[in-house]
């Protein structure tokens, strides 16, 4: 059973929301820095559609067919697992995002290192307006919604905007261990030159996450081909888009490369508040400043519940049958109650990751060490 908060999925309710606004003030210590450049989709994006997608049944489908099916039937299953790599950033877009990373990589407030990931940079969306704008870009959201076959928008937790993962050369630890994400959708963009590199590859399990985890626990690895596939990025500026909460994935160690592997991960959620929200709190609370994580998670959930209340205000019809209204109220209460229990520290929703040293699932990331 999925642990996502949601309602009886038999009823296809829809309340599509405008993306949640960015916070009025960035959190203390994450002040926005001056940048002489500004995000411009016509300059910094260069979209070339993916050749195919893999759906949640692990069928490979040409993107043109995937798109056509949705155009012809808006209610077709929105069951994206992941896309093949597609070009998304222009050379200029890559250059500016690299520049943003270079300027902020020594900000110790942003750098995190733990047993799962040797080095990641979080909070760039607060300090960089450029990163914020590309995450919140309408053009990009429209492109990704077409891939998802449902409306998606920038995630409600701005700490997730533009997370950078750094894979140093020569390490024997994965850049990121086998895991599922703690939120629904991610677009992973490559910002470094990986041509001729050995390692630093994104690997994706071709089984549902539970089965893949069991296989990992039993065998310590997944067999290439049948159980797992490697996604090869043609170069910097390419990305893949995936439903990371549903698909087990990892990034292998960079054995050799021209430069360290640098990827940027943008996170997204559904615009329909009756769609599933797999955002978890406990991991973000563990890795991000506690006061920031709590407020951002509460905002995300409040935005969803606000949409549910809007649904009642706008769509409830007079009549004997109160079931629809009661179901919506119950769903909203469930989501708020769960949020309260998580924030009060009475509940933990960490999904963990697979520790390759111990060959078992690890629930805690260990306290982040500043690097
Ligand atoms: O850096 C990548 O290629 C993907 C990393 C990832 O899976 C994550 O940050 O959740
Ligand atoms: Fe991930």
From TrEMBL:
Extent of the signal sequence: none
TM helices/strands, residue ranges: none
A Gene Ontology molecular function term of the record: oxidoreductase activity
Keyword entries, A-Z: Iron, Kinase, Metal-binding, Oxidoreductase, Transferase
Domain Fe2OG dioxygenase, residue spans: 153-271
Keyword Ribosomal protein part of the UniProt annotation: no
Keyword S-adenosyl-L-methionine applies: no
Domain of life: Eukaryota
Family of this protein: Belongs to the iron/ascorbate-dependent oxidoreductase family.
Record protein name field: Cytidylate kinase
């Amino acid at each position: 059973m999925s642990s996502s908060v949601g309602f009886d999925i038999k009823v296809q309710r829809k309340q599509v929301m405008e993306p949640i606004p960015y916070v009025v003030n960035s959190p203390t210590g994450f002040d926005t820095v001056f940048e002489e450049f500004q995000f411009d989709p016509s300059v910094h994006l260069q979209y070339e559609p993916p050749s195919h997608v893999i759906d949640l049944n692990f069928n490979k489908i040409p993107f043109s067919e995937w798109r056509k099916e949705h155009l012809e039937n808006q209610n077709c299953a929105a069951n994206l697992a992941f896309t093949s790599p597609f070009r998304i950033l222009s050379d200029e877009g890559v250059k500016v995002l690299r520049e943003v990373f270079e300027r902020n990589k020594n900000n110790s407030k942003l750098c995190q290192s733990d047993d799962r990931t040797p080095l990641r940079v979080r909070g760039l969306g607060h300090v960089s307006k450029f990163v914020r704008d590309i995450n919140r870009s309408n053009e990009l959201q429209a492109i990704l919604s077409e891939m998802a076959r449902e409306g998606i928008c920038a995630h409600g937790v701005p700490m997730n905007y533009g997370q950078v993962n750094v894979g140093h050369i020569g390490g024997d630890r994965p850049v990121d261990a086998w895991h599922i994400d703690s939120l629904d959708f991610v677009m992973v963009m490559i910002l470094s030159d990986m041509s001729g590199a050995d390692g630093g590859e994104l690997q994706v399990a071709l089984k549902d996450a539970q089965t893949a985890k069991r296989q990992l626990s039993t065998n310590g690895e997944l067999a290439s081909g049948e159980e797992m596939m490697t996604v090869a990025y043609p170069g910097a500026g390419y990305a893949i888009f995936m439903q990371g909460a549903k698909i087990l994935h990892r990034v292998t160690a960079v054995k050799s490369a021209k430069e360290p592997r640098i990827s940027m991960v943008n996170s997204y959620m559904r615009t329909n508040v009756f769609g599933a929200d797999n955002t978890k709190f406990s991991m973000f609370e563990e890795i991000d400043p506690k006061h920031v994580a709590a407020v951002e998670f509460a905002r995300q959930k409040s935005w969803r519940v606000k949409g549910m209340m809007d649904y009642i205000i706008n769509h409830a019809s007079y009549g004997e049958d109160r079931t629809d209204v009661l179901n919506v109220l119950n769903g909203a209460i469930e989501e708020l109650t769960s949020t309260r229990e998580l924030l009060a520290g009475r509940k933990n929703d960490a999904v963990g990751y697979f520790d390759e040293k111990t060959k078992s699932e690890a629930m805690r990331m260990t306290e982040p060490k500043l690097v």
